[in-house]
Design a protein that fits this description.
The complex is a heterodimer. Chain A is mainly α. Chain A has one domain. Helices cover 71% and strands 3% of the residues of chain A. Chain A is built from eleven helices and two strands. A two-stranded antiparallel ribbon of chain A has the order 1-2. Chain A is globular and about 60 Å long. Chain A starts with 8 loop residues before the first helix and ends in a 6-residue tail after the last helix. Chain B is of the alpha/beta class. In chain B, the strands form three sheets. Chain B has a six-stranded mixed beta sheet, sandwiched between helices. In chain B, strand 9, helix 21 and strand 10 form a beta-alpha-beta unit. In chain B, helix 18 runs parallel beside helix 20. The longest helix of chain B has 27 residues. Chain B starts with a helix and ends in a 5-residue tail after the last helix. The relative contact order of chain B is 0.10. The chains are: A mainly alpha, B alpha/beta. Chains A and B meet through helix 4, helix 9 and helix 11 of A and helix 5, helix 11 and helix 13 of B.
Chain lengths: 288, 598
């Protein structure tokens, strides 16, 4: 067992900050999953594979000197199309929620193999102008890639929240999730909205992928490392809620960072799982 | 799963294993031992996975964790404590089972998205266990070498020893999987798959059964892990706690067919051969992509798997069942109220001398609140033995909630429910079913993958206490005759019309030989002539000894059937007495029709 040592106050503060940064990425990755699960009743495990595909595309474009943020212009529509296409297949075959999990599990395997055959199993790191920029404010470091991730995560989460809450489209989507038949009777075009939403979720995976490429080293096997923690954020945050994953992701990120500071970095994967179990034991209804 | 096949199957498995045990004597190149070892290894993993996940529908993505737990248990005992190899296997099984049961005990308590949640938590646990192992001296991050551990001399050479070990494990696993599939335990697991709540209400101890199935599944995976540790001889966390194991076993089982004990084995043989071809040709990555593609294709185009499809092609089994049980087919309304009343065997509730008027069920101050909404706000009701009590009230008055609380489907917020003097509040639904209370659902909830006969046999096995599946089927047949469904015994519930489904619901409730039957709007949606049939059937139910609480809106039936009615309104008892008299009371008319009509 690693020894426990109390870190200094500044180290702890930096840990909390980095926890917020990584938590924002959990939230961004979780947002698309949560919307898909909560509003479409499709559990898209391939979300992670798609995010990594986007990350590798961003990496590939950076080799051609395309700015990572500019690459979003290409990546977002591409992933939107992939997500909508996937949803079209699922709707065409009337795939049940459970089978959607299995199907996207299979798809994840294919994406992993695809990534591995194109970019090999070696670690890849995107080099960009952003990577070297960091600010020091009040003794704390603010690296630019992480700040970009945080801003994107917060901005997008609130935008999605507002759309779901205030626009007719958002209300129609929530209504269709509640009762598709009744929503259809009131003139909601469920098929079109489903495609739109699935495309949006997948596009969100694209944005998350770009953020991933900005701050993390990439390897195909890393796809699965995110599954547990992001699903924990999704479930703790509440299915189909726009702000839930961001808030829960931040809580998990901070808990992980503090755990790492107090014990050893390799213990971090336990944190989200423990949080999830604790919540399940204390409030079994929360996950429903 | 019927007739003579039941007795022959284990002999076939044992004989096949015995024959395969001679393969090492053939002197084939060692490479065949390894390929066959891998096939058997995956048969153990896929079949053991299927015992929980295929039978109950709770898909585990954590089979790698349970497999890995067994693998590292054996590794640790061999490398650090120098145990003899064979003795490490029971410990590996126990550790894996304990891990699974701990996880299951938590997750299975959560209502709601249980299946999906279980899948994701088991996926997460793979990496959690991996993290723990890599951070502790169990592995230490660099892997553990077992090259110094001697391989026990069972076969002519080391590779055949592994082959024989895996063969024994595979034979044992398939025997267990078969035995569960044909047993009462398995019937309960299959019922959980189709409708867990309905299974619980029929007396299946769903929580316990899921844990048992998980424990067996994990223990077998643990054994496979233990054997594989020595086979690998150098184990690392990165190789063991991966997504590959769950991906592969899910693929094999879904491809072969998850509802059959032999399905995963067939999938395992096919996929191992396929992957071996890819690896041999140095295309391991393509193999992974192929697995994914096959899984997707299987789900889209063959959701039942290979084996059920083959079964459907080769023998059209269905019709045979009714014939072998020797019951006349066709509409059985002509059959008079049959044997069940006169049966003196089993723990016959019907045979119990009825003392009319004695209180059977006493409900006191029953409250049920859904957050703010009080569906029941302090209801007192007594049900007397042998009566038909009508439970009336406008929509939303709490009638269905009453049935749901008494049957244990919902937990009471407050109050007491005494049945034959025993308190029911706080008991799980399957215990209430076991105590002698059965219910029907307003919208019938048959087990979709079971035949009509097996639907009823399940109730006979659990509520009715006939433990032997064959005996349960023959008794279930009598209940089908009673309900006029004998001709549809081999049909699937989806092939029945509404009227027949309602009667199936009744037959299933009766098959547990209840002393109290709660009928929730059985007549709703039936045509007038079907209602007449149903009224006659309900009379026969009472005549054979059950007491009935009858929620109904069809006034004609209420007047014809009930000895007494109680009227609920806004979760409170409004009136009580003979139907004809109670319905005339002004407060009852107000509740139904509004104040203007009173």
């Amino acid at each position: 067992m690693p020894g426990f040592s109390l870190p200094s106050a500044s180290l702890l503060a930096q840990s909390v900050l980095s926890g917020i940064f990584v938590g924002a990425l959990y939230g961004l990755l979780g947002l698309g999953l949560s919307l898909s699960w909560g509003l479409l009743r499709l559990i898209n495990l391939a979300h992670f594979g798609l995010a990594f595909l986007a990350a590798y595309l961003c990496y590939q474009l950076s080799l051609a000197h395309v700015d990572p943020l500019l690459s979003l212009v290409l990546i977002v529509p591409l992933l939107f199309a992939i997500g909508a296409g996937l949803h079209w297949v699922m709707a065409r075959f009337a795939v049940t929620p459970f089978n959607s999990l299995l199907l996207t599990f299979g798809l994840t395997g294919i994406l992993e193999a695809l990534i591995q055959s194109v970019w090999t199993a070696d670690f890849r790191k995107l080099e960009s102008a952003y990577g070297n920029v960091k600010w020091k404010i009040g003794g704390l470091y603010f690296p630019l890639p992480e700040v970009i991730t945080l801003l994107l995560a917060v901005g997008i989460s609130f935008a999605v929240w507002a759309v779901l809450r205030y626009t007719d489209l958002g209300k129609a989507m929530r209504a269709a999730a509640e009762d598709p038949a009744v929503a259809a009777a009131f003139g909601v075009d469920e098929k079109r909205n489903g495609l739109l939403l699935a495309g949006l979720c997948s596009a969100l995976a694209g944005v998350a992928g770009v953020c991933l490429a900005l701050s993390f080293t990439l390897a195909p096997s890393q796809i699965y490392a995110w599954v547990g923690v992001v699903f924990a954020a999704v479930m703790l945050g509440g299915l189909g809620r726009a702000l839930g994953p961001l808030i829960a992701g931040t809580v998990i990120g901070v808990s992980e960072a503090v755990t790492m500071a107090v014990t050893a970095p390799s213990w971090a994967p336990i944190v989200s799982f423990t949080l999830l179990i604790v919540i399940l034991v204390l409030r079994p209804g929360r996950a429903a | 799963m019927s007739g003579n096949g039941v007795k022959r199957t284990p002999l076939v498995i044992v004989a096949a294993a015995a024959a395969l045990a001679f393969v090492p004597q053939l002197g084939l190149p060692a490479f065949y031992d390894s390929l066959l070892y891998l096939m058997l290894h995956w048969i153990v993993l896929a079949t053991s996975w299927n015992i929980l996940s295929g039978y109950t529908g709770y898909f585990s993505f954590g089979h790698g964790a349970f497999f890995g737990a067994g693998l590292y248990t054996t590794t640790t005992l061999l490398a650090r404590y120098e145990w003899p190899f064979v003795w490490t296997l029971p410990v590996a099984a126990a550790v894996a089972a304990l891990l699974g049961v701990t996880l299951g005990a938590i997750v299975f308590r959560v209502k709601g998205v249980r299946g999906e949640l279980f899948a994701l938590l088991t996926l997460a646990i793979t990496f959690v266990i991996g993290t723990i192992v890599v951070n502790t001296p169990l592995d230490g991050g660099s892997g553990v070498s077992l090259s110094a551990v001697p391989v026990p001399k069972i076969g002519p050479r080391a590779s055949s020893t592994f082959y024989l070990l895996a063969l024994a494990a595979a034979a044992a696993t398939m025997l267990i999987a078969w035995w569960i599939a044909v047993s009462r335990f398995g019937a309960g697991l299959f019922a959980i798959h189709d409708d867990e709540d309905a299974a619980e209400v029929l007396g299946v101890p769903t929580y316990r059964y899921k844990l048992y199935a998980l424990a067996i599944s994990c223990a077998l995976a643990g054994v496979a892990g233990g054997i594989h540790a020595l086979f690998l001889s150098y184990v690392t966390v990165g190789e063991v706690f991966t997504i590959t194991v769950p991906l592969t076993v899910v693929l094999m089982s879904v491809l072969g067919g998850t509802r059959h004990w032999a399905g995963p084995a067939i999938g395992a043989i096919a996929i191992t051969a396929l992957l071996y071809a890819f690896t041999a040709a140095d295309h391991a990555v393509a193999g992974k992509a192929a697995s994914g593609a096959i899984l997707i294709a299987a789900i889209l185009f063959m959701p039942d798997g290979i084996l059920p499809r083959l079964q459907r092609l080769f023998h059209r089994g269905g019709a045979a069942v009714a014939a072998t049980t020797g019951v006349p087919a066709g509409d059985a309304f002509a059959v008079p109220a049959p044997a069940p009343a006169s049966r003196a065997d089993a723990r016959g509730p019907a045979a119990m001398p009825a003392a009319p008027g004695e209180t059977l069920l006493r409900v006191r101050g029953l409250h049920k609140a859904f957050r703010g909404v009080k569906a029941l706000a302090g209801v007192d009701i007594e049900v007397r033995r042998g009566e038909i009590l009508g439970l009336l009230g406008p929509n939303g008055s709490g009638k269905s909630t009453f049935i749901n609380v008494v049957s244990g489907h919902y937990a009471a917020t407050a109050g007491a429910i005494a049945f034959e003097g025993r308190e029911l509040v706080g008991r799980p639904a399957h215990r209430i079913a076991g105590a002698g209370i059965a219910r029907t659902y307003q919208i019938p909830r048959p087990f979709g993958h079971l035949t009509v006969l097996d639907n009823v046999a399940l109730a006979t096995m659990f509520g009715g206490g006939v433990r032997d599946p064959a005996a349960a089927r023959s008794q279930a047949m009598e209940w089908l005759v009673f309900a006029g469904l004998a001709g549809r015994a081999a049909a699937r519930p989806e092939d029945l019309n509404l009227h027949q489904r309602k009667f199936l619901e009744l037959a299933r409730a009766l098959a547990s030989r209840p002393r109290l039957v709660l009928l929730d709007e059985v007549l709703c949606g039936l045509t007038p002539s079907e209602i007449d049939d149903a009224v006659a059937l309900i009379r026969r139910i009472r005549d054979q000894g059950s007491t009935i609480v009858f929620v109904e809106h069809v006034m004609r039936a209420v007047m014809a059937l009930t000895d007494r009615v109680v009227v609920l309104n806004h979760g409170l008892l409004l009136a009580e007495g003979p139907a004809a008299e109670v319905m005339q009371r002004p407060e009852v008319m107000t509740a139904y029709l509004g104040p203007a009509h009173a």
